[in-house]
Design brief:
Elements (H helix, E strand, L loop, with lengths): L9 H12 L14 H11 L2 H8 L8 H35 L4 E3 L1 H9 L10 E4 L5 H10 L3 E4 L6 H7 L2 E6 L4 E6 L18 E7 L2 E6 L1 H14 L5 H12 L3 H13 L5 H13 L6 H9 L1 H15 L15 H7 L6 H16 L1
Parallel strand pairs: 2-5
Antiparallel strand pairs: 1-2, 3-4, 4-5, 6-7
Helix pairs in contact: 1-2, 1-3, 3-4, 5-9, 8-9, 8-10, 8-11, 9-11, 11-13
C-alpha cells in the first residue's frame, strides 16, 4: 500500500497489488500466509477476479488448487461475458448509426481497452450507452428492436419522466444475456459535469478487430470516472483500480492537467477524492507531492477521501451498502460535499428526497 492511511488485511493488499500489476510491469508478490478463501471472496465482491488472475496465474502453484481453479473459472466467465458485450455493442452501434441517433459507449469495453490494453480481464455487468435526453424515447424503440426490454422502469410509458429524475434506465436482453444502461446524462445531480454529453469531445477505441466504439475524450472520461466513483463512495476496488490504471499511462503534467480540466467541467471535489484514494492505494500522486498537499489542504476533500477509504476497506462484512439498514447513508451524506455552495446542497437534498419518494 502506498499510504499509511491504508491499514488493512494481507488479503486485500494482495488484491491491490495484483490489480496494480495488471497495468504496471512486474510480478505480484504473494505473502506466505494468506486466507485464500477470503481472498477469493474479496475479489468477487470487488469484481476484480479477472485482473487478479491476470497477475497471479504465473504463481498459481503457490495457491491451493481449488482457489486457482475458481479464479481461472471466474476469469474465463468474465472474458466470455465481455465477448458477448462486444457482440451486443456492435449490434447497438449499427442500429443507432442507421437510425441517426448519436451515442457514446462509456466505461466497459472502451475503458478496458484504454487502460488494460484488451477486453479480456475487466469485469462489467452491463453495457453503458449515452444519448441525448431528447432522444430517450427513440433510443428505447431501438433497444426494443434489438430484443431489449425495460427493467427499471418496467413500464416504458414512464420512461421519459423517469429520465427527468434519473440519469439512466436499465434494459435487459434475456436471450443475449446482456444488460444495457441507457444514460441521458452522466451524473445524478445535473449540476455535476453538466457540459459532458453525447456531443462532447470523443475518441474511437478499437475494442476488438473491426469493432470501433466511440467513447468520451480523455479529459471528459477522467472527470466522469471521478464523479461515477464518488456517486457510490468508491466501495468497489474495481473502480479505483480502473482510475489508477488510467492515470498510470499519464505523465505528471498530464495528471495535473486532468485535475484542472475536471474543475472546468464542474466535477467539483470528486477528482480530489479520487486522486487521494488512488494515491493511497496505488501511489498515483507519488511524483506530484505538491498537488497531493494542495488537495489535502481542503478539509472537505480530506473528509470525502476518508469516507471513501473507510467505505472501501473499513467494513467488517462483504455486503452491498443497499443490503443493510442505513448502509447507503455515508454515500448519501458525501454527495452534499461534491460541490461547494448552498445552491448545490439544496438541489442535492431535493434530488435525494424525490428519488426516495418515487
Amino acid at each position: 500500500m502506498a499510504s499509511s492511511d491504508c491499514k488493512t488485511s494481507a488479503e486485500f493488499q494482495l488484491l491491490v497489488e495484483a490489480c496494480r500489476r495488471s497495468f504496471a510491469a512486474g510480478p505480484a508478490q504473494i505473502p506466505d500466509k494468506l486466507d485464500w478463501e477470503l481472498s477469493l471472496r474479496l475479489a468477487r465482491f470487488h469484481r476484480v477476479q479477472g485482473l487478479v488472475w491476470k497477475s497471479l496465474e504465473p504463481e498459481r502453484d503457490l495457491m491451493p488448487a481449488s482457489i486457482a481453479q475458481a479464479f481461472a473459472s471466474d476469469a474465463q466467465a468474465i472474458a466470455v461475458a465481455n465477448l458477448r458485450s462486444a457482440a451486443g455493442s456492435r449490434a447497438l452501434l449499427e442500429v443507432f448509426a442507421e437510425a441517426g441517433v448519436a451515442l457514446l459507449f462509456v466505461k466497459g469495453l472502451t475503458l478496458s481497452t484504454l487502460v488494460y490494453g484488451n477486453i479480456g480481464h475487466k469485469s462489467a455487468i452491463d453495457v453503458d450507452i449515452l444519448v441525448e435526453e431528447r432522444a430517450v424515447a427513440r433510443a428505447a424503440d431501438l433497444l426494443r428492436s434489438c430484443g431489449y426490454r425495460p427493467v427499471a422502469p418496467s413500464d416504458v410509458a414512464k420512461l421519459v419522466d423517469w429520465h427527468k429524475l434519473n440519469k439512466e434506465s436499465v434494459w435487459g436482453n434475456a436471450e443475449a444475456g446482456l444488460q444495457v444502461d441507457l444514460h441521458s446524462r452522466l451524473a445524478d445531480n445535473r449540476r455535476l459535469i453538466p457540459q459532458i454529453d453525447v456531443h462532447s469531445s470523443s475518441q474511437v477505441v478499437e475494442v476488438s478487430p473491426g469493432l470501433n466504439l466511440p467513447t468520451l475524450g480523455r479529459d471528459e472520461l477522467f472527470a466522469y470516472l471521478c464523479v461515477h466513483g464518488a456517486s457510490s463512495l468508491w466501495f468497489r476496488l474495481k473502480w479505483i483500480a480502473d482510475l489508477a490504471a488510467f492515470l498510470h499511462s499519464s505523465s505528471t503534467e498530464e495528471i495535473e492537467a486532468l485535475y484542472r480540466g475536471a474543475q472546468q467541467l464542474c466535477a467539483g471535489r470528486a477528482p480530489a477524492q479520487a486522486l487521494l484514494l488512488a494515491d493511497a492505494l496505488f501511489g498515483s500522486l507519488r511524483e506530484l507531492p505538491a498537488l497531493r498537499e494542495e488537495l489535502r489542504e481542503d478539509r472537505v476533500n480530506r473528509w470525502l477521501y476518508g469516507k471513501a477509504l473507510q467505505q472501501l476497506i473499513g467494513r467488517s462484512e462483504l455486503v452491498e451498502p443497499t443490503s443493510t439498514p442505513f448502509g447507503t447513508l455515508p454515500i448519501h451524506l458525501t454527495q452534499f460535499g461534491l460541490l461547494p455552495g448552498l445552491a448545490f446542497k439544496t438541489s442535492e437534498l431535493v434530488r435525494q428526497a424525490r428519488t426516495t419518494l418515487s
